[in-house]
Amino acid sequence: xxxxxxxxxxxxxxxxxxxxxxxxxxxxxxxxxxxxxxxxxxxxxxxxxxxxxxxxxxxxxxxxxxxxxxxxxxxxxxxxxxxxxxxxxxxxxxxxxxxxxxxxxxxxxxxxxxxxxxxxxxxxxxxxxxxxxxxxxxxxxxxxxxxxxxxxxxxxxxxxxxxxxxxxxxxxxxxxxxxxxxxxxxxxxxxxxxxxxxxxxxxxxxxxxxxxxxxxxxxxxxxxxxxxxxxxxxxxxxxxxxxxxxxxxxxxxxxxxxxxxxxxxxxxxxxxxxxxxxxxxxxxxxxxxxxxxxxxxxxxxxxxxxxxxxxxxxxxxxxxxx
Length: 322
Prior knowledge:
This protein is mainly beta. Helix content is 4%, strand content 42%. It has a single domain (23-321), classed as Beta-galactosidase, Chain A, domain 5. It has one helix at 310-321, and strands at residues 28-31, 35-40, 43-49, 68-72, 94-97, 101-103, 106-108, 118-130, 135-145, 154-168, 171-182, 188-190, 197-202, 212-216, 232-238, 245-252, 262-265, 276-280, 287-289, 294-304.
């Protein structure tokens, strides 16, 4: 593990730094047939995939999916997400899906596409947001039972997925909000399981145990972070150019179900220390979304071109949840 400073001395006498929205070119949002892109100047910071994105050539086409975010770019311009790694072709940048579920007595997996029992897909764009210092969008996504089977396919969850991005104190702050409504006649039951849920992240493929790590609000890393709870988790790694580091932090809102949520963190032995992360609302306890019920989860992403500073991240989390 690469060490980080623990001293608070640089925070000044009060231990508090005021965060401000620095003046810069206003973000813009542009929609095409295949994507929605939020840009900061020339940097396409957030790209949402509306169209079905195929896996690499020669890979089973079952791994094609829409309704996810890739790439996310830091203010440095370098991508901080990875897609279709050869160890897990269904890992898609920044995405979400329930894994171990029961529907009408049947096992349904919306995450592992190979099972062909469930999937998540883009349905339609609901709105675009263009403000003086913020840009974003709201789309409708469908969580589908038995996709591609005309005799069985039906929509289980109808979801409003909102993404809004700002530039605050030298970093992109990106709100990530999912509102899932069960529109089916069956209850969606999630027995406690080690992964799955409303936000998952795969880092660039060159991040490994030699040049990257996790750091949680409780000072946990890839060594001891799995199954622990955290208010936030920062994942950071060296740029592919070898010059400098980028950090991708997820803040977990304290109003989320089972907050502070437990984490799925890969140890150094997994895929040479690749960075994969998932906040898991049903890791310790069973969870259920009944017919007609709505489940809302909120996260904020912080993307910056430096190693994580736990004290300023704590401050961002307090401002986010106050």
